[in-house]
UniProtKB/TrEMBL annotation:
InterPro entries: AB_hydrolase_1, AB_hydrolase_fold, Hydrolase_4, MAG_DAG_Lipase. Transmembrane segments: none annotated. It comes from Roseomonas acroporae. SUPFAM superfamilies: alpha/beta-Hydrolases. PANTHER family: PHOSPHOLIPASE-RELATED. Pfam families: Hydrolase_4. Residues 81-94 have a biased composition (Low complexity). Residues 131-354 form the Serine aminopeptidase S33 domain. This is Lysophospholipase. Residues 72-96, 361-391 are annotated as: Disordered. It comes from the Bacteria.
Amino acid sequence: MMHRDRPSAPLPHTAPGRRGLLSLLPALGVAACTPRLIPAGPDIAPPLLRRDALVMPDGALLPMRVWLPGTATDPGEDARPVAGAGVAPATDAPPAGPVGVGRLAAASPGAWSGIAPAAPPGSAPRGTPTAPRAVVLALHGFNDSRNFMELPAPDLTRAGIAVYAYDQRGFGGAPHRGIWPGPETLARDAAAAARLVGARHPGVPLFLMGESMGGAVLMLAATLPDPPRADGIVLLAPAVWGRETMSPAMRWVLRLAAHTIPLVGFGGSAGGITPTDNDEALLRLWRDPLTIRNTRVDAAWGLLALMDAAVAAAPRFGLPAADGRPAPPALFLYGARDELVPERATLFALDAMPGLQADRRAAESVAGRDAPGRGGAGVPGPAMPAGAGGGGSGNAAPLRLGYYEEGYHFLLRDRNAAAVLRDVVAWIGDRDAPLPSGADAAAAAWLARVQHRPG
């Protein structure tokens, strides 16, 4: 009789743990090397959105999956280019009419409070795409791929939300698999992708959503001098474990390894670390040929640089762009059982984000009563820009925080994913209303606990 063990996940979202790094010490006697980096090349043409891929200005082709409302699965990856000046006509869905920004105009009362069909049953033949109420551009985490949305996407499409997910450079089926492209390249790719997807669905609210590394990339993209236009940003356990909250021993070993054995790969699995309590999600990840299972040391070093950059960008996240354009509101979700991005690192980044206090003021205005005060996350964050005032900047876009006691790192793939998805759908429909699960109230209680925690 065969015994099926619980799969050991490839831990695709953060730098290696302390045990993984210390295991590299015997090999550090080799001659010094330089970590390898392959950023974007020079622009050769305007970016292009194809049915199955994004083509970046330097010609890099980033494979993509799309899930549309009214279809059982994504329409496939047939690699057919689409004519047009960079943006394909939305021939795979009916034209969408104008939709409100604050709330989705097409939503009936209560339609966005849970995972609900986008249209009454029988209103369209099965497999016929319907006009989306909103569009989500989703960015995966470290060593993962566009397939990370395979489990949650159908629930979003049933709520009338179209989902686009692409392989970021160095991951999945994108160019230079396993080699780090650099934070700026990832952020500019995300900005270009957002503009292309937004242009394909004019008048439909666009939301950017990033898991772990993808969340860190979106924090950088949102703070570029010319950030992409979006109606909201969803950060799912963003990778913000920078050097300032990492142990000195871990920083030293990773730096030494990156500059002595950068090309050495190490297995991505580690006993005792659980990215999710969903065995099906772990099996899908492990069996997916697009998952990277052996991480180069210099790629982990690059991830650390990205996390540092995301933490440094936190004080500007939610502030207006250089041209004065207001930033979109954001939803920041974190699980109490996250073993990949530590609580201390998450609090450190949150403490610097000016939108969290702005969301408290918005909640007071909507509810007509005092909202739970933040009072600081209890961990000093990075230096604030002038006017940010420890999270109290008056012109910051609101940042809603959700906290899940049963949540792990893969919030959209956990066994509790339905509650998280309902919150995301509800927030997309109304960025002022409380989250259906009560995760925003749980977040206020969490911050109050850590503020009064001894030591």
